[in-house]
Amino acid sequence: MNEPCDSRHLLPAASANPVRGHVSLVGAGPGDPELLTLRALQRLQTADVVLYDHLVSPAIRALIPARTERICVGKRASRHTLPQEAINALIVSHARAGRRVVRLKGGDPFLFGRGGEEMEEVVAAGFDYEVVPGITAATGAAASTGIPLTHRDHAQGCLFVTGHRRQGEDRLAWTRHTGPEETLVVYMGLNEAPRIAADLIDAGRAPDTPVATVENATTPRERVVLATLATLAATLEQEAVASPALLIIGSVVRLYRPAHRAAVEEVFAGA
């Protein structure tokens, strides 16, 4: 059920419905529908309209009832079907029509998901809202691959960062402020991976620091590509890694075991 993303939707007609609209900013998690929270599932099943991103997997979209209007608003690796301002306006317009609006976002709404901006727009328009948290891609990928983000012998901290630079900046500031005792998880960093690796090495990280690139985490299409900071750029090109993918950087990557997920699924297959 991989429906096309088409944002050519008319705004809802003004409603005489006295019921006040409500907005739920819902985290869809990393992709596996079994990792969706119970509250998220309940909101999907009772929504009047769901506005979703590309990163929401077809398996999760299949849980939306057929009667519910679905609107794809895009957003994948800087290619947006609608600009953020138009998404905000669409959310508010459906709330004004007295509808139960679900804004469905991959991962967690408040972690690199621009949920904070959408919340501000809903509040400014005077509507009630709630935030339903989701499992973020970093913890989903860590659990699925068996790579712990912290470990007593490898990492005493973990830093979640974005690979996007602000317009006009030629370097990501966070690359200067990390050390070998930290795990780095880079969201939206695939296109910038060669530059990220070079900046980290320039900032003092060892060139042989392990890196795992996790593609389509927690889904049947999950793939893990291993490299070091020194070999990352060439490896990603050779393996043709595509979004959605995130980078896990640090000594904890040495704990990765390729058979981890398959072994677990075999154990519980007959349960």
Automatic annotation (TrEMBL):
Which Enzyme Commission numbers does its entry carry? 2.1.1.107
- Looking at the keywords, is Transmembrane helix present? no
Annotated InterPro entries:
4pyrrol_Mease (IPR000878), 4pyrrol_Methylase_sf (IPR035996), 4pyrrole_Mease_sub1 (IPR014777), 4pyrrole_Mease_sub2 (IPR014776), CobA/CysG_C (IPR006366), Siro_Cobalamin_biosynth (IPR050161), Uropor_MeTrfase_CS (IPR003043)
- Name the pathway it acts in: Porphyrin-containing compound metabolism; siroheme biosynthesis; precorrin-2 from uroporphyrinogen III: step 1/1
Give a yes or no for keyword Transferase in this entry. Answer: yes
One family from Pfam that matches here is: TP_methylase
Q: Which family does it belong to?
A: Belongs to the precorrin methyltransferase family.
- Please report the stretch or stretches of sequence annotated as the Tetrapyrrole methylase domain: 23-232
**Species of provenance:** Gulbenkiania mobilis
NCBIfam families found in the cross-reference section: cobA_cysG_Cterm, PRK06136.1
According to UniProt, the name of this protein is uroporphyrinogen-III C-methyltransferase
- Keywords, sorted A to Z: Methyltransferase, Porphyrin biosynthesis, S-adenosyl-L-methionine, Transferase
Leader sequence segment? none
Superkingdom of the organism of origin: Bacteria
